[in-house]
Amino acid sequence: MFEIIRSHIVQELQNTDFVAIQADDTTDVATITQSVLVFRYLDSDRNVVERFYGFTHLRDSSAATITEPILCQLNLILPDLPQKQKLIAQSYDGASVMSGSLGGVQKLIRDVYPNAHFVHCYAHQLNLIMQQAVSKIRETRVFFQDIGGIAAFFTRSPKRTEALHEIVDKSVPRGSSTRWNFHIRTFNLIFEHREGLEKCFVAIGAREDFDHTSQNEAHGFIRTLQDKQFQFLLFLFHEIMRDVDALYDQLQRKDIDTVSVKAATSTFVQKIKKVRDGVDDLESKLPEHSIFANRRQNITSLVRIGKEICDIVIVQAQERFSFTKHLVSATLLQSKEFAQYDESFPERAPNQAVEAYPMLKKEQLRTELTVLCGMPVYRKATSALTLLSLIQKLHMKKLTYRDSDFTKNCDYDSNDNSRS
Q: Do β-strands 87-92 and 117-120 pair in parallel, antiparallel, or remain unpaired?
């Protein structure tokens, strides 16, 4: 059955116009590391599909070892030169062995498939952004250690977890240093049930059936939950993580495209700026009984730290999500810009698109995009994929541009009496 499915995937890959690959490694319960290969492309119905192709055991984690099975499988699927040109993108995490410009996997793949531009996984970039926001400031490092400590306190002991269920009727999920969508679950629980958690720690500290270690740790977490610095950062990161989680969900969607990524990340930056603007008002949201564990601490310094955290997230997001080189071509498909392009067509983007993807014909690309920009119906598209869907829905198989009045000459379905 697996071979039948794989044969079907190969057939689809050979018939589609463009292909992208995603690869990562995973370690199973036997601590055996395997490479995972996924193909992303348009099927015969022009639907975006992602197909898992298989696992490959890796002898070590060197670039050459990781590249070998990927090239082996690609050479079977896309053997000759016309087929090789169809591989237009490769996406991995940002580890140097994968992303290195001299000897990384992406460079070794591109030596054989020259159109396979490397795209650093956007979800992984988001994780790195948040790691930077946490690691740069001492107070945030301490804060996340406290968050992790609360989660670990319960997950290490079934008896403690039972006490939590009795009082809060919830369980604390473990966080992850690399998957920030897991942190939001921990944040939500501590933020929404902090009073219940405090009662749980009080109960554990008072119950004689708990050992001294549990009681001492419980008393320490009571002081943590009552600390104004902890509460301030809890409120701040609850705001930030809400936007991080929303962006993370968008970046993980199967139908995401580069245009949608640009819009989503731009919206994310604007939301974090709003969080920064509201940092001064966070003190009014803190519980009245909160105190500073550090007497030298004051709310002014917390406001400064809060704004610095937001600044790090904003700057990192703007840098890591910037559109450069081959990604600039995606701006041509931003339908919200079509009205402006209709007045003054951007020449730089088509030039860079053709430079990145030599199989494209510059004049034909410019002509067809000029027609699209001149037709208001296409300005309704919200992404590159919805634009493609709209073109198909309107039966527009070919566009030609003639004269300055945007006269259209379009092929259309013979069963459709209306020409678009």
A: parallel
Task: Report the chain's C-alpha Rg in angstroms.
Answer: 27
Query: Residue 36 corresponds to which tokens in the numbers above?
Result: 């995972």
pLDDT at position 325 over 80: no
Residues 318 and 269 sit within 8 Å (Cβ to Cβ): yes
**Rounded to an integer, what is the distance from CA 207 to the centroid of its chain?**
45
Distance CA 93, CA 125 (A): 8
Distance from C-alpha of 200 to C-alpha of 202, rounded to nearest angstrom: 5
Amino acid present at 46 = R
331 has a pLDDT exceeding 50: yes
Distance between CA atoms of 34 and 24, rounded to whole angstroms? Answer: 9
376 contacts 390 by C-beta, under 8 angstroms: no
Q: How far apart are CA 16 and CA 64, in angstroms?
A: 28
Q: Is the pLDDT of residue 401 over 70?
A: no
The rounded distance, in Å, linking the Cα atoms of 173 and 189 is: 9
Residue 23 near residue 70 (C-beta atoms within 8 A): yes
Long-range pairs for 401-406 at CB < 8 Å and ≥24 separation? 401/367, 401/368, 401/370, 401/371, 406/370, 406/371, 406/374, 406/375
pLDDT band at 7 (very low <50, low <70, confident <90, very high): confident
How confident is the model at residue 179, as a pLDDT? Answer: 58
Q: For residue 92, with 0-12 CB atoms within 10 Å meaning exposed, 13-18 middle and 19 or more buried, which class applies?
A: buried
The token pair at 241 is: 């993580």
DSSP secondary-structure letter at 325?
A: G
Nearest alpha-carbon partner for 147 in 72, 237, 277? 237
Q: Report the C-alpha gap between 282 and 307 in whole angstroms.
A: 11
Is residue 96 within 8 A of residue 61, CB to CB? The reply is no
pTM above 0.85, yes or no: no
Lowest mean pLDDT among 29-33, 69-73, 377-381: 29-33
**Residue 146: Cβ within 10 Å count:** 20
391/160: higher pLDDT: 160
The answer to whether the beta carbons of residues 134 and 148 sit under 8 Å apart is no
| In 90-137, alpha helices (H) | 96-99, 105-112, 122-135
Q: Which one, of 303, 379, 362, 317, lies nearest residue 180 by Cα?
A: 317
Give the count of beta carbons closer than 10 Å to the beta carbon of residue 295: 7
Q: What is the mean pLDDT of the chain?
A: 83
